[in-house]
Amino acid sequence: MRNNLYFLFLVLLIFSCNNKEDHNRLAKYAIDEAIKVSGGELYNAVQIEFDFRDKHYSSQRRDGAFKYIRITTDSLQEIKDIYSSHSEFIRQVNGEQVIIPDSLAQRIENSINSVNYFVLLPYGLNDSAVRKTYIGKATVKGNDYHKIQVNFSEEGGGDDFEDVYMHWIHTETFKLEYLAYSFHVNGGGMRFREAYNERYINGLRIVDYNNFKPKVATAKLEELDSYFEQGTLELLSKIETENVSVNSLQ
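Above: the chain sequence. Below: its structure as tokens.
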């Protein structure tokens, strides 16, 4: 019954989408539902631990504030990088705080933030700096999706506020199953990600990604789903999180 009501609401909303305001309302609705089915209120107070590419991450969020820790360990030392919303960046080597250049600290913050951004998706898509645009409906591998573009305002959008993201949210399950983005650092480029290995850990949806790039320089961001369907994207890597634990702080 609940799914039928959602479907009816979406049908009415889609047919009434004759202006920008209506499209933005539909984009917000789809994202709201995606957040609900992926963890909902749990995102507001949660502690997540995971390993990613030989580094351990400890990520805590509570009522909009966050504290992210990244630990790198080898045979000689343990490097702990601490990035939070309420204090300056801290690096500790074998338990002792060390001073590093601001430029390096900023790069580390950006890297830690990027890893957590993708792990926590679709949470974050309702941040105040986010601008959402409903592109339309798309079909990928026989399934229908809401196709939503996201970009960021300069204020609050971080160093990469000029990046543009595209999201494919399933029209029935409201799960975020594909995403793409354009970026400007390191010469720029585009990526398309396919979610797989879905699992719910203590109520939080966690996925891994196949990470693709277009083979042709003329590809457009909004067309990457078509390139994916045609099999003309190049698989670059797999974005995999391991040893994930989730604990509510509520």
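Residues 200 and 238 are 19 Å apart (CA to CA).
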